[in-house]
Amino acid sequence: MTARETRTAIVNGLIAKRAEIAGVIADLQKKIEEHQNDLTHLDHALRLFDPTISAWRDQEWVTSAEIADRAMKDKGLSDKRIRAMFIATFLVRLGQMQRGGRLEKARDGRGPTMHWKLADA
Predict the structure, then answer these.
(1) Phi-psi category of 109—alpha, beta or left, where left has phi over 0 and alpha has psi -120 to 50?
(2) Is residue 59 within 8 Å of 37, Cβ to Cβ?
(3) Annotation: CATH topology of 54-121
(4) Whether 118 contacts 112, CB under 8 Å
(5) What is the model's pLDDT at position 9?
(6) For residue 94, how far is the Cα from the chain centroid?
(7) Which residue, among 69, 99, 100, has the nearest Cα to 87 in the 3D structure?
(8) Which candidate, 121, 116, 70, places its Cα nearest to that of 96?
(9) How far is 104 from 60, CA to CA, in rounded Å?
(10) At CB < 8 A and 24+ separation, what contacts does 26-34 make?
(11) C-alpha Rg value of the chain to the nearest Å
(12) pLDDT tens digits for 49-105?
């Protein structure tokens, strides 16, 4: 096998592996979206039975991305292109709420993976 044929085989193998991983990521993103929809439906069902329930309060920690995703769903938005803008907006607001003593921020994570919870009353 020539050097050129070897390079072609390697490149073809890498392209195939990349396509495989991209497919796995797409499948996982679809599953995440389905689970987020399930959570939204459960939250709405909980509020039907007890409007005072805050599902967020019952959950210890949530990420900035989860908060932005819930807000987008509540507003009927699904455009993934504006998701980053929502996350950035929420990061600013969450930081303000933390400084005001209403939220606690975990030491792990950055940006969309930063974890938050309501401060103890």
Answers:
(1) left
(2) no
(3) Arc Repressor Mutant, subunit A (1.10.10)
(4) no
(5) 94
(6) 15
(7) 69
(8) 116
(9) 10
(10) none
(11) 20
(12) 666 666 555 557 777 778 778 778 877 887 777 888 877 887 788 788 788 877 777
